[in-house]
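So, is this right?
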Amino acid sequence: MARTLLRMGAAAVIVALLVWPASPAKAQAAKDFQAGVTAAKAGKLDEAIELFTRAIKAKTLSDRDLARVYNNRGMMHQRLGKYAAALDDFSEAIDLRPDYFRALVSRGTVHGKVGDLDDAEDDFQAALRIKPYDVSTFIERAAARAAAGRTDTAIEDVNEVLRLQPRHREAYLIRGRYFRVQGRHFRAVGDFSEAIALDGNEADAYVERGLTKAYMEDYPAALADMDAAAQRGAAAPDNFYHRGLVQGALGNHAKAWLDYNRAIDLKPDHTGALYARAVAAIGAGDLTRAREDSLRVLELDPAHAGAARLPKSLDTPPRR
């Protein structure tokens, strides 16, 4: 979504350059704005913020153009996780231009991230009054609702997306995750399968369906999906960790060990993979590895009950 917003920002620059008067100060503000958009596209977020701030401080822009600059700077703060600053900027943009659709959606999204669901709902509703059929608004509102534990209403929003765009692949993935959170695994599998039918070359739906199958304890099907995801480039630490758990459940302990190692190589502080490898090491008779991994887990997560028990069990002689 951030890429879409930045593309919109770039388009706004073209309009702004056509309408801003060409006095030196105003021309410089336009150049700063355009340079800020270019920096944002290149991932130079702090530089973009500095350039947008310079355009704001010029105090030469119309309310409409100034709102555009505040909105762009707010998006940079949002991407950096500086939510208070983002909210301030989006609010400035909306004060200057109350019907600013994109700023309303962005502010609603950030309100959702900081747990202010009522304020988020107000912003999304205001945005939908301006553009009633904009699917991005429904998706962002669904995310805010789901984060607040309201998955039922989040699913309603995704249902509306699919009513408007029945082939919206991302919506099937999103709704499938919400169904899985609710424990409605068959519905989740159905949505992930729809996503695969729409595009079977992407790894994400295989990852999601495989994980759901594992929750259902259908381990052969889970492994098949996880292997399919790996063949399509899925290589995140959690992908290997989850496949390792499935391999272990199927009794493929050597392969499980390899997957745990891959997860740990990619993310040395992956407590799940470290603990799983510690347990596997006990089964393989490698008590040194089991102790090292369990102690490492406790360094990272002192409250990890399983890891706390392992060293004690290794120190306790077996009953005769």
In short: The CA atoms of residues 80 and 258 lie 35 Å apart. Residues 1-21 have pLDDT under 50 and may be disordered.
